[in-house]
Design brief:
205 residues, homodimer, elongated, DNA-binding, 11 helices, mainly alpha
Chain lengths: 205, 205
DNA sequence: GGGGGCATGATACGAGCGTATGAATAGAGT
DNA sequence: ACTCTATTCATACGCTCGTATCATGCCCCC
């Protein structure tokens, strides 16, 4: 790891942005090397091929989420509060990593096998949520139901609402980039998730 | 509309499948015309350009959802029951139209302006849900909160859980293609949505 | 201080791309 | 029977693609 950017790192960085914005096929080796200020042959030299560079981009992009979500899950408090912390951290992570949803969605679209790094990360994050849900169910504070499926309901919201931010802005006039709007959105999701999970002693009226 | 397929329709059909599977840039004019059994020049002749064909594919794919969701919203019953009907219909629609999530996600990834048809459809569908939520809030059966934001929480789940079906299958061993699993998933989401919306007279225990 | 290996540079290659062009074909209307 | 129009077909063009090749620079260490 060099403190000067280094050609390999510059390629990874430029490729990540371009792949996220234009997709794999929409990004040329020439565009990447130009953006990285490198020579046309640099990708072949440092990564072997364009495809191998892409795999490296995916792996590097997915990795950090595991630690962040697992960290949020370890905050002290009741399971519902820890789930809220995970949801907020998930939103924050995706906000800090705005090109990640694009990279994830590209994986989903293609017919290539999904990158192992991506699958393992998703599994870990859903496991983090499912564990907290099961814990709350044992404590009686979370209503019954398959924890894995409930975790999917929860995780869908940060992912999709971040991924679809362009649609929200242009189609429903809700801009998650605006801090105020964004806070309301996150609070609304948190409220929805807590209400969707909490166990009640009384029937709804 | 001809009962014999017709070259234009065959192109649209072939293009939709190929665009969904390989993306815009990953799909060549030659691949489309070959799959449609048409001549290389057929796309230029019938649609003007590859891009115009793509726009036609998007418009044709998005359109049907509006009527189906609006229809489900008109079932008789309390707002919460009608919302449940919309959620179930949303899952069913996406299940009947498995290439639509891919087409939607491609829109999100690119930096081109979103297709007007796509934006209008999303806005209409979110509006359908938001109207039902507001109705339930006036009746006192749905808890307070911005109906548009709650609608986003609801809509995220069918969309993402359908779009990410490959990750669910390969990463979390939940296969929405299997009818039993799928039923459990839909039921879980419906339960989560109802719980997330319903107004309670008592505090949670 | 000169050799060795890592890194970068310029350029070439064949393949595939989207589109344009003009000829061939078919079918309906007079 | 003949023309007119709509469609299909074969082919060509200019371009960009990913990768390979080989020369050049650079710096560290013996």
């Amino acid at each position: 790891m060099n403190d000067t950017p280094g050609t390999a790192a510059a390629l990874l960085h430029a490729a990540r942005q371009l792949f996220a914005r234009h997709g794999y096929d929409g990004t040329s080796v020439r565009a990447i090397t130009r953006a990285a200020g490198a020579n046309l042959g640099a990708i072949t030299y440092h990564y072997g091929s364009k495809r191998d560079l892409y795999e490296a981009v995916i792996a590097a992009a997915m990795a950090p989420s595991r630690e962040r979500l697992a960290g949020a899950a370890q905050t002290p408090g009741a399971p519902l509060d820890r789930i809220e912390a995970v949801v907020r951290e998930f939103f924050a992570f995706l906000h800090d990593t705005p090109d990640l949803p694009s990279l994830m969605m590209q994986q989903l679209i293609g017919d290539r096998p999904l990158a192992k790094a991506a699958l393992a990360t998703v599994a870990a994050n859903m496991g983090t949520l499912a564990t907290l849900i099961a814990e709350g169910q044992r404590a009686g504070t979370i209503r019954p139901g398959d924890p894995r499926l409930l975790a999917l309901s929860i995780g869908s919201q940060p992912i999709w609402l971040t991924a679809a931010r362009r649609v929200l802005r242009e189609g429903v006039s809700i801009d998650p980039a605006d801090p105020t709007t964004r806070g309301e959105l996150v609070d609304s999701v948190v409220g929805f998730v807590r209400a969707g999970l909490v166990a009640h002693s009384e029937k709804p009226r």
